[in-house]
Each structure stands twice: as C-alpha cells, then as structure tokens.
Amino acid sequence: MGRHKPGKPRRRRHPAAYTLRQLEPPGGGYEEWIHVPRGTDASHAVNDPQLTDAARDMMVRMARLGPLYDSELPMCALDLDAAIDAGRLGLITGDDKGVLVAVEDIVGGVDKVDTEADVRESIHRLHAHGVMLVEFHGDVPMLRIVAGKPEKPGEPWIFRGSPEGTSRDRLTPTP
Predict the structure, then answer these.
(1) Could you tell me if 40 and 62 are in contact, meaning their C-beta atoms sit under 8 angstroms apart?
(2) β 97-102/33-35 pair status
(3) In terms of Cα–Cα distance, which of 57, 54, 22 is closest to 42?
(4) Cβ-proximal residues to 144 (8 Å cutoff; 6+ apart), any chain
(5) pTM here?
(6) What is the separation, in whole angstroms, between the first and last Cα of the chain?
(7) What distances in angstroms separate CA 78 from CA 65, 83, 141, one per listed residue?
(8) Rounded to whole angstroms, how far apart are CA atoms 150 and 72?
(9) 88-111 burial, b if ≥16 CB within 10 A, otherwise e?
C-alpha cells in the first residue's frame, strides 16, 4: 500500500461499481446471459439467406442492446425489447398487482426522451443500471421497480411495494 507522505492528501477510494450480472438479480430472466462482443455488427446477419427471420431479429437486437448492457446481456432484455415493440409494458405496482403502461410513461418522469429510439434506450439503460428488473408472469415480461439495489454481490434486492421497500418507497424518486 505504501506510506502516507506528510502534507499530501490521501487518495479517495471510490466504491466498486458492479454490473447487473455481478449483482445477481433474482428471477428466471437472469439465469442466462449472452456475451455480446464490443463492436458487434448484425448487418451480415440481415443479409444471410440461411437465417430465419427470428434469428435475424435476435441478432439485430443483441447488437443494438449489447453496448447498453456493457456487453453482458441478460436473456430477459431480449424479451423486454420485444415487449417495447408493442408500445405497452406491464408494470408491477406491488403485491404482485400489475398494470399496462405506455412505454413513454415509464421513462417520462426519469429521463428526457424525444424519439421512440430514445424511449427504448432509456428503458434498457434503467434496466441495465438495476433501477427496474424484469419479472415474468407466465410468458409476459413485466417491470418491477427497485427501491433498494444491492451495493455488492450477495446483498438483497428490495422492490417498491414490498414490505422491505415500504419505508424506502417514500425516499426513492419515481422513475
């Protein structure tokens, strides 16, 4: 570590920043992860006649989403992206009750968005930073707002509307 020199201020240590994958979010959508190398370009997939439409669509989504998730893409992000195409997302409001919300309304209070692409990117950035997680009810991906994100791996996730998150809900700004 070294000695401290008199008169020289100590270097401040910043807390470690963990990725979404390292924080191990709960739920089935976070059991599988796809590594998307930086600079992945899906243009070759679009022109490949041997690929099915579903395979092309998945490769285009992975190339678009990889940078937003720092190259570690949870499988549920692909489902979330497909749900965004519909224009409405399920939002869990607490006690496993949910509502359908227009995608613009989900990010409207948190992020300034001007275009459809901005809305999509904002939702994925909020997800990648652990502000909200994807939870499946049947085959339907729904968003659950996080009231308390773990600071390091192994700590619990606390969700808005849960008994643990009730006191935090008043302190956490609405996304």
Answers:
(1) yes
(2) unpaired
(3) 57
(4) 92, 132, 133, 134, 135, 159, 160
(5) 0.80
(6) 41
(7) 8, 9, 10
(8) 18
(9) ebbbbebeeebeeeebeebbbebe
Q: Read off the tokens for 90.
A: 């399920």
**19-72: per-residue pLDDT in tens?**
999 999 999 999 999 999 998 888 888 888 899 999 999 999 999 999 999 999
β pairing state of 140-148 and 88-94:
parallel
Angstrom CA distances, 114 to 64, 104, 111, 171, stand at 19, 10, 10, 28
> Of 175, 165, 149, 141, whose CA–CA distance to 23 is shortest?
149
Q: How far apart are CA 44 and CA 56, in angstroms?
A: 9
